[in-house]
Specification:
10 strands, 11% strand, seven-stranded mixed β-sheet, 493 residues, alpha/beta, three-stranded antiparallel β-sheet
């Protein structure tokens, strides 16, 4: 049994791996990627039963082209998912497909998915084309290319696990475009027939692929150097329709790399059109320099002539801002007149039929005497104890005899020096009614309550202890004293 592989790699072996990968795929690797190289090649060394990664590299250097290509494929990145970075697909479905359908009298539409990996991106595009109502009757095609042959074989099988399907594919699209294949999912035939897979290296010429209306080349340019980026963008420019759109990754841009492209505004995705191109419904493109536009337009196959140079940027007309949303004010309940709430008011209360309700009886004391109205009742002027009207109150003052401020103000003393009684709140639901003091002065104080008798006095009473005949549960058992009479013999207690 061979020893486990060691993740060691000499500087010479690392330099050779970086050179081979760049020659085959144009992917730039350097000495700082040693950990990435060793982590990608270590599973291959273990599968081959070699001692370490260095031994695997030595075998690849002395082996055939197939051994070197296996090393190259191990260094490619195949990360993908359904509707990855959803913004490009939203723009394609809502804006771009209606524009292209209206501008294609030949009723034909082609899309290129470069670096398609295991196929989730081209199948996502094909599903959107199949669901677009404006493309009914169109002849649609999606070309999916990649440099990794193993990834292309998986993409052609169109079979995915439950975990792969759950990464971004909505449930309604799963029901329409996928079918069960044992424990996995398989893309249905109408969508599969729309996609054509092919091996293609972006670092080499590919102009024989025909003309495309949309090109997806996402998360590929970040692995190239500036010279390779320029070459790839120029080749895509040659195969893209004048009003087509190039879709790049979120971290990619043509700024500072190629002047033949103009960014499409109005979307958060990295969308670009050929410089100088116009579309009937595009929200806008800011034109680049006329020199770059003419140079790029002259080299394209069947390209339209470049437009006349302009002196300033083309500003797209923006739609007017929508009016602010105003919600109606909530309806308030109708006000209830005071006559229907206060007993003793001028207008009597009435039933819904209009009949007058009887007035409530005036409050009376226990002796049957009518209780005079309170000086603080609604509609009455506050008066002093002597009966004279109190002067206006001063807001923010403190009631006499109270430590709390009165929001309505206190009532100052009258001409004779007397003050009105302080306001006492009435607790809602309380059975007690507070009566106003009589005009002659304060009401008499209630008699003091008698103190309860002391427990010792109650214990000394002969009838304090309950009788066993009337209170059998509380009677205490009695026992006779030694030499004394029995408790029930009539003796002295």
């Amino acid at each position: 049994m061979s020893a486990p592989a060691s993740p060691s790699l000499s500087p010479a072996d690392l330099a050779w791996v970086c050179e081979v990968v760049r020659a085959e795929t144009a992917v730039v690797l350097d000495a700082s990627k040693e950990y990435l190289v060793t982590s990608r090649l270590l599973p291959l060394a273990r599968r081959a039963g070699l001692a370490d990664v260095g031994a695997y590299v030595a075998r690849a250097r002395a082996g055939s082209a197939a051994d070197r290509w296996e090393l190259v494929e191990a260094m490619t990145t195949n990360e993908t998912s359904w509707f990855r970075d959803v913004e490009p697909f939203t723009y394609l479905r809502e804006r771009l497909l209606p524009e292209l359908a209206a501008a294609r009298p030949g009723r034909s539409l082609r899309v290129w998915s470069a670096a398609c990996s295991t196929g989730q991106e081209p199948y996502t595009i094909a599903m959107l084309l199949a669901d677009a109502p404006e493309l009914r009757g169109f002849r649609t095609e999606v070309l999916a290319t990649d440099v990794d042959r193993t990834a292309l074989e998986r993409a052609r099988s169109a079979t995915y696990s439950q975990m792969e399907v759950g990464r971004g594919l909505p449930a309604d699209m799963v029901a329409r475009h996928l079918e069960r294949a044992g424990l996995q999912w398989r893309v249905r035939e109408p969508v599969r027939s729309c996609v054509r897979f092919a091996e293609l290296n972006l670092a080499r010429p590919f102009t024989e692929r025909g003309r495309f209306d949309v090109v997806f080349c996402r998360n590929v340019l970040i692995y190239f150097d500036t010279a390779t980026k320029q070459q790839v963008l120029d080749r895509i420019h040659q195969v893209l329709a004048p009003d087509g759109v190039l879709v790049l990754g979120a971290a990619e841009t043509t700024l500072g790399v190629s002047a033949a492209w103009t960014r499409v505004e109005g979307s958060r995705a990295a969308l670009y059109r050929p410089a100088g191109a116009s579309s009937s419904g595009a929200s806008s493109s800011v034109s680049s320099s006329s020199a770059g536009s003419g140079a790029a337009g002259g080299g394209r196959l069947g390209a339209a002539p470049a437009p006349a140079p302009v002196s300033g940027p083309l500003l797209a007309a923006r739609p007017p801002a929508p009016a602010p949303l105003r919600l109606p004010a909530p309806a308030r309940p109708p006000a209830v007149p005071a006559a229907a709430l206060l007993p003793g008011a001028a207008e009597p209360r009435r039933t819904p039929a209009g009949e007058a309700l009887p007035r409530p009886a005036a409050p009376r004391t226990a002796a049957g005497q009518a209780v005079p109205p309170s000086p603080l009742a609604p509609g009455r002027v506050p008066a002093t104890r002597s009966g004279t009207a109190a002067p206006p109150s001063r807001p923010g003052s403190v009631l006499p005899g109270s430590a709390f401020p009165n929001p309505a103000g206190s009532r100052p003393a009258g001409p004779d020096g007397s003050r009105p009684a302080p306001t006492q709140p009435v607790v809602p639901g309380s059975p007690r009614r507070l009566l106003a003091p009589p005009p002659g002065g304060r009401p008499p104080a209630p008699p003091p309550r008698a103190a309860p008798p002391h427990p010792s006095a109650a214990a000394s009473r002969t009838d304090a202890r309950p009788d066993a005949r009337t209170h059998p549960t509380s009677a205490r058992p009695r026992t006779a004293a030694p030499g004394g009479p029995r408790p029930d013999s009539g003796g002295t207690r």
